[in-house]
Amino acid sequence: MRQVALLRGINIGSRNRIAMPALREALAEAGYEDVETYVQSGNVVLSASEKPAALERSLERLIEQRFELAIPVVVRTRAQLAKAVGKNPLADVAHDPKRYQVAFLRSKLSREAADALGAAAIEPEQVVIDGLQIYSWHDAGVARSKLWAAIASKKLGVDATARNWTTVTTLLEMAGENRSI
Predict the structure, then answer these.
(1) In-domain check, residue 177
(2) What is the pLDDT of residues 122-180, one digit of tens each?
(3) Do 62 and 86 reside in the same domain of the chain?
(4) CATH number of the domain that 57 lies in?
């Protein structure tokens, strides 16, 4: 089945560098099919028979063995990603897809972490927590946003990685149903 693997925190500055051609090669050598990457920030679309949680663990092991990096990976099936895109709870306010972020979580947030995110959203920023996704609107961008800092921090207590709306919808297109299963 088509799945989207999102690697957290790679190719930002000089840390955790992985070249996308090398990543594609490693995944293909490991037996994954139809491997594609999008931009340099760790977005992979591939075909795999493993369930998402097992695929997350497999990819983390592969990356650690091949690239000597401990990188959290969050996986969504094409159907899960389509559902997340279909919800689009901030569509009425998020008019710039580069400032509209979706954080994909490996597990649900604690009540305390969810409350802290709500408190960090200062108007006109907005946040919606929906199961394993956090949708956030940053009208002035993420650079000085306290909400973004809270989402991007490890204080969430769960493995998470975020992408802007343009990237999310592009990954859904790449994982399209017309690809091999």
Answers:
(1) no
(2) 999 999 999 999 999 999 999 889 999 999 988 899 999 999 999 999 999 999 864 44
(3) no
(4) 3.30.70.1280
> What's the per-residue H, E or C state across the chain?
CEEEEEECCCCECCECCCCHHHHHHHHHHCCCEEEEEECCCCEEEEECCCCHHHHHHHHHHHHHHHHCCCCCEEEEEHHHHHHHHHHCCCCCCCCCCCCEEEEEECCCCCHHHHHHHHHHCCCCCEEEEECCEEEEECCCCCCCCHHHHHHHCHHHCCCEEEEEHHHHHHHHHHCCCCCCC
Pick the range with the lowest mean pLDDT from 3-7, 38-42, 44-48, 86-90.
Answer: 38-42
Where in the sequence is the domain holding 26, given as residue range(s)? 2-80
Identify the domain boundary among 65, 80, 95. Answer: 80
Q: Does 48 fall in a domain?
A: yes
Q: Of the residues 46, 80, 114, which one is the last residue of a structural domain?
A: 80
Q: Both tokens of residue 2?
A: 């088509």
29 token code pair: 């050598």
Which among 163, 134, 164, 130 has a CA at the least distance from the CA of 150?
A: 134
Q: Is residue 36 part of a domain?
A: yes
How far CA 55 is from CA of 21, 27, 74, 75, 84, in Å, comes to 20, 11, 9, 7, 19
pTM value? Answer: 0.93
